[in-house]
Structure formats: C-alpha cells, structure tokens
Amino acid sequence: MDEALGAMGLRGKDxxxxxxxxxxxxxxxxxxxxAVLKVIEGKSMTKHEILDAVLGLGYVFSTDDPLxxxxxxxxxxxxxxxxxxxxxxx
Length: 90
Hints:
Layout (H helix, E strand, L loop, with lengths): L1 H6 L24 H9 L6 H10 L9 H9 L7 E3 L2 E3 L1
Antiparallel strand pairs: 1-2
Helix pairs in contact: 2-3
C-alpha cells in the first residue's frame, strides 16, 4: 500500500507522513511574545497596529494568517494584556 501511495506522490519514501512541503520555517531573533512586548511597551495599540510594528521589527511569520498567531499572544494568560475597547496594553 505504501508503495502505491508513494508512486502517486502521496507518501515519501522514508517518511510515514509523506514528504515535507512548503517553505522552511522562519527564524526570528525574538519570539513573537518578545516582539509584542517590545512594541507595546508604554503604549496602547490595536491588534493591527501591533502587527504592523512587529513586522517593522523584521519579524517574519510562517503562517498565512499572522493575526491569528498574534491573537494567541494577546489573549493568552501570560503576560495578561489589558484590552480596552480594542486597544491592548500591559
């Protein structure tokens, strides 16, 4: 069965889950959380403003939906960001 799937290009020769696809994962100097903390320090910003500032730092997302990744940080438990009518602060 594995040989038949491999012949169709659905399985890699040595990999149970098939060949890797897509671009390699981006490597950033800062974690996303560190980048958010850096740009939001002493400010109150919307999610889109934070995204623009994080991108301005040179952070590269490895997803098609960076706002989703950013939301995980902003709505997470540690650190707890204050959300005042869509503006986030520490």
